[in-house]
Design a protein that fits this description.
It is a single chain. Helix content is about 35%, strand content about 10%. It has about 500 residues and is an alpha/beta fold.
Length: about 500
C-alpha cells in the first residue's frame, strides 16, 4: 500500500482522538464528541423551510455524474438502483441525484442522462422513472414523502463534453484558457470550439424546456449548475470573452440570470437552486510527469507566473490565484437572492484539473495525482468557505460539500457545523454510493457501520474515467460481482505497472 504523509481517519479510536488530531493540524473544524439521534433533537434532524415547503431534515444527497445510462439518455437498472438508494438514505433533500444534460451535445459522456436528439418525451419517461424509483424507496422505508424535496440538476458540460465517445473530448468553451487549453488538447487558435452568443441564447431555451420537463414529471426544483469547470461555471470567469456573456460580472452572470428568468416565466412556482463552485484555482499536475496525467507524484500547480493578473478564475485572487477571494461569489449569491433563488449548494474548483480541492481523498483517481496536502485541510477549507458565505448571505439556504473524507466522524462534524450555524444542510455524494444508510443510521442514533464507509479509494472516479459504469467497487456487492470489476482491476494493475506505484486493493 502506498505510503501516505497523513494519518488515516480509521486510525483514531474515538472522536476525542480525532479532535486532538485536528488541533495538531491547526484546523478550526468543529467536531462533537457524540452524535445525537432525532429523538435527542439532533441538529441534523431539524426541519428546514424553503418557500413554503418543509424539508424534513438537514441531510442532502449530492448530484454525481453518471456513466451508466443508455446512449439515448435513459436510465438503466444500475441508475435506478442508485436512485432507489438515495430514497432509502433518509436524507430529505435530494439535489438532483446526478447531472441531467439539457441537450445531447452537452453531455459529459455518451452514457449521461439527459435530452438527446431533442426527444423530450423519451427524456421525460426516463426522468419520471428516476423520480418514481427514489420516491417509492423512500415511501417504503419511511412511510411518506411529504417532507422530501427532490431536484433535477440541469447541465451542459462545456469544456468537458464527450457526447459520442468516452475518450474523445468535443469541447464547447466560453473562452481560451492559457493553462487548460494545452492540458486538454485545445489549440489556442482554434476558435471553432468557442461557443457564440447565439449558441448561448439557444442553450438558455434548452434549460427552460428541461425545467418544464422536470416540473411536469414532478420534481420539486431544478438546479442550474454552475460548478466544477462545466459551462455555467466557466462563464463566471469569462473576463476575456467579448459580447453579452463576458467581461463584467454583470455579463458573466447573465447566462444564469436569463435561465432563471426563463424558468420563472415558463414554470411559475418551480423552485430553483444553483450548485456553485465558490472558488477556483489554476490546474494542478503530477510533479513527476509534465503531461499533467497520472498519480505517479504529488500534485503541484501549473506555472501561472507568466499569466498574472490571473483572469481565468472565479473566487480567486487575480494576483495570487492560489488564494481565495469570495467577493464575486458572494455578490453572485446575493444577486441570485434578488431573483428569489435562495437554495445554493456550494462546492469548489473542478475534478478535472484540481480534484484535491473539490473532493479531498486519500488516493488519487487514475487521471489525477497524489494529494499535496492532508485531505482534512481540504475538508476544513470547504467548510470554512461555506461559513464565510453564510455569514455574508444569511437569507440564502446553503448546502455544504466535501464531507465524505471524514468517514467515521462525518456525522460528528456535520452535527457540530450545523449547531454553529455555519451551513443549513450537509451534503454527501461519494459516501452515499457505499453507505446509503448513513443518514438514517445517524438520525436513529445508531453507530456508523465502518464496513460500508467510503475510504476515498477513488474507484468511483477511476472506473468511469476508464469507460466503466459508475459505482462503489470496493464496498458495494453489486459492483464487486459485476464484469466491470475485473476490468477495473486489470486497468489498475496496468496503471500500477506503468507508474510503479502501489494502489489500494
Amino acid at each position: 500500500m502506498a505510503q501516505q504523509p497523513f494519518v488515516k481517519i480509521g486510525h483514531f479510536k474515538d472522536a476525542g482522538a480525532f479532535i486532538g488530531h485536528l488541533h495538531r493540524l491547526g484546523l478550526d473544524l468543529p467536531c462533537d464528541q457524540r452524535v445525537l439521534g432525532a429523538a435527542e433533537h439532533s441538529p441534523l434532524a431539524q426541519p428546514l423551510e424553503i418557500d413554503g415547503f418543509t424539508i424534513g431534515n438537514r441531510w442532502c444527497v449530492q448530484p454525481m455524474e453518471g456513466w451508466d445510462g443508455t446512449t439515448d439518455g435513459q436510465p438503466t437498472e444500475h441508475t435506478l438502483r442508485r436512485w432507489g438508494h438515495f430514497g432509502q438514505s433518509g436524507a430529505k433533500l435530494i439535489w438532483g441525484g446526478e447531472a441531467f444534460a439539457v441537450q445531447g451535445d452537452g453531455r459529459a459522456n455518451p452514457n449521461q442522462l439527459g435530452i438527446v436528439d431533442g426527444d423530450y418525451q423519451r427524456a421525460g419517461r426516463g426522468a419520471a422513472a428516476l423520480l418514481a424509483a427514489l420516491q417509492n424507496a423512500h415511501r417504503q422505508r419511511f412511510g411518506g414523502t411529504d417532507d422530501l424535496l427532490i431536484g433535477l440538476q440541469l447541465t451542459h458540460s462545456g469544456r468537458f463534453c464527450r457526447p459520442h465517445e468516452k475518450f474523445r473530448l468535443e469541447p464547447k468553451i466560453a473562452y481560451h484558457h492559457p493553462l487548460l487549453d494545452p492540458k486538454f488538447g485545445i489549440a489556442p487558435d482554434d476558435d471553432s470550439v468557442v461557443i457564440s452568443d447565439d449558441y448561448l441564447r439557444a442553450l438558455i431555451d434548452s434549460y427552460v424546456r428541461a425545467a418544464k420537463l422536470a416540473r411536469d414529471v414532478g420534481f420539486g426544483f431544478v438546479d442550474v449548475k454552475h460548478c466544477h469547470g462545466y459551462l455555467g461555471h466557466e462563464l463566471l470567469s469569462a473576463r476575456t470573452r467579448g459580447g453579452r456573456y463576458g467581461g463584467s460580472l454583470e455579463n458573466r452572470t447573465r447566462f444564469a440570470r436569463e435561465i432563471i428568468a426563463g424558468i420563472g416565466a415558463e414554470c411559475p412556482g418551480l423552485k430553483i437552486g444553483v450548485r456553485l463552485s465558490a472558488f477556483d484555482h489554476p490546474p494542478f499536475k503530477s510533479d513527476a510527469r509534465q503531461d499533467g496525467g497520472g498519480p505517479l507524484g504529488r500534485g503541484i500547480c501549473e506555472d501561472f507566473a507568466g499569466h498574472l493578473p490571473y483572469r481565468w478564475g472565479f473566487g480567486c485572487d487575480e494576483n495570487d490565484p492560489l488564494k481565495i477571494d469570495l467577493s464575486e461569489p458572494i455578490a453572485f449569491i446575493q444577486m441570485l437572492g434578488g431573483l428569489s433563488v435562495r437554495l445554493i449548494n456550494l462546492s469548489c474548483c473542478s475534478p478535472y484539473y484540481n480534484p484535491h480541492f473539490q473532493r479531498p481523498a486519500a488516493f488519487a483517481p487514475s487521471d489525477g495525482y497524489q494529494p499535496p496536502e492532508d485531505p482534512l485541510i481540504g475538508v476544513a477549507r470547504q467548510i470554512d468557505v461555506v461559513r464565510q458565505i453564510k455569514q455574508a448571505c444569511p437569507e440564502s439556504i446553503l448546502v455544504g460539500s466535501g464531507y465524505s473524507y471524514l468517514q467515521e466522524y462525518l456525522p460528528h462534524v456535520a452535527q457540530a457545523v450545523l449547531r454553529r450555524g455555519w451551513t443549513d444542510c450537509v451534503g454527501i455524494g461519494r459516501m452515499i454510493l457505499a453507505y446509503w444508510d448513513l443518514p438514517a443510521d445517524a438520525l436513529a442514533g445508531r453507530p456508523v457501520q465502518s464496513k460500508f464507509l467510503c475510504r476515498t479509494f477513488s474507484d468511483c472516479t477511476t472506473a468511469p474515467r476508464n469507460g466503466l459504469i459508475s459505482g462503489c467497487y470496493p464496498l458495494d456487492e453489486h459492483y464487486k460481482d459485476a464484469p466491470a470489476h475485473d476490468e477495473l482491476k486489470k486497468k489498475k494493475s496496468e496503471l500500477r505497472q506503468a507508474l510503479k506505484i502501489i494502489q489500494p486493493k
